[in-house]
Amino acid sequence: MKRRRSTEGWLGITPNWALIWALIWALIWVLTSCALALLPVASARAEKLLVSWKNPAYSGQKPHRVLVIGMSENPEVRADFEDDLSSALAKEGLDAVPGNSILLRPHSAELDAGYLKGQIHDFKIDAVIVSRLVKVDKKTTYVPGQSYAVPYAYYRTFYGYYGTVYRQVYSPDYLREDMTVRVETNFYAATPGDGELIWTGTSDSFNPRSAQKVIDGVVKLIVKDLKKQDVL
Q1: Which residues pair with 69 in a beta bridge?
Q2: Percent of the chain with pLDDT over 90
Q3: Which residues contact 81 (CB under 8 A, 6 or more apart)?
Q4: Tens of pLDDT along 113-143?
Q5: Of 18, 74, 5, nearest to 214 (Cα)?
Q6: H helices present in 130-187, as ranges
Q7: On the CB side of 154, how many CA atoms lie within 13 Å of its CA?
Q8: What is each CA distance from 166 to 11, 22, 23, 111, 160, in whole angstroms?
Q9: CA dihedral 62, 66, 70, 75 (to 10 degrees)
Q10: Where are the domains of the chain?
Q11: Average pLDDT, stretch 80-105?
């Protein structure tokens, strides 16, 4: 005679498989909904070069001694950008000069062109790279909550089916704020004349946690594209 396999658990208790499967499916739906909610944020790149252009008419030599200027009302942000981009350019073999080391901070919106040209001449600068903040966009998105019908092992009894088939798992709605920082960068030959444009690029930084994150991203994009375009 065959011995019947016991369906009792280790503690002598018959497991409630309907409840166990319900909990498993509920967990699956919750994890799936969380993953879908986070997917757009996780997949978005932190920074992106929107457009870049190299002047095909430029016939001058490749720059060697480059003045780096960051146009910002915040002197600390300006200095950090100029220092970081200068350091990155130096690694590519250029003699990069941060603007904060040879240019006085302006006291008005009026440009002293004579002073600027004098410093460029005296320090033997042959190219200037200038970056400025174009705009900061903030966008608030309403993300509606979602409800899910949880699959349930409900076929065993009518009351189990009727009472639990529409059990809901609810994901509440929320507001998500996204920020985009746009920076324009131009690379000019310092001589001759008023300075010919060699290269220009515009970048976006998405949801940066700090000004330093914007600087890090923009510096990498600039140097990468300057190398790609054979400007350096």
Answers
A1: 130
A2: 33
A3: 68, 70, 72, 131, 215, 218, 219
A4: 788 888 988 999 999 999 988 888 887 776 6
A5: 74
A6: 158-164
A7: 16
A8: 32, 11, 14, 70, 11
A9: 170
A10: 17-41+142-175, 45-140+176-228
A11: 92
Distance, in Å, from the CA atom of 219 to the CA atom of 85, rounded to the nearest integer, reads 6
Question: What's at 29, amino acid-wise?
Answer: W
Q: How far apart are CA 222 and CA 216, in angstroms?
A: 10
Which residue do the tokens 């998405």 mark? 206
As a whole number of angstroms, the distance between CA 103 and CA 122 comes to 12
pLDDT for 70-82, tens place per residue?
988 888 989 999 9
CATH of 45-140+176-228 among 3.40.50.300, 2.60.40.1120, 3.60.60.10, 3.40.50.10610: 3.40.50.10610
Under 8 Å between Cβ of 129 and 69 = yes
Q: How many Cβ atoms are within 10 Å of 185's Cβ, its own excluded?
A: 23
User: Two tokens at 134?
Assistant: 């174009």
Amino acid at position 110, single letter = E
* Both tokens assigned to 178: 């996204």
The alpha carbons of the chain give a radius of gyration, in whole angstroms, of 30
Prior bond to 192 cis, omega within 30?
Answer: yes
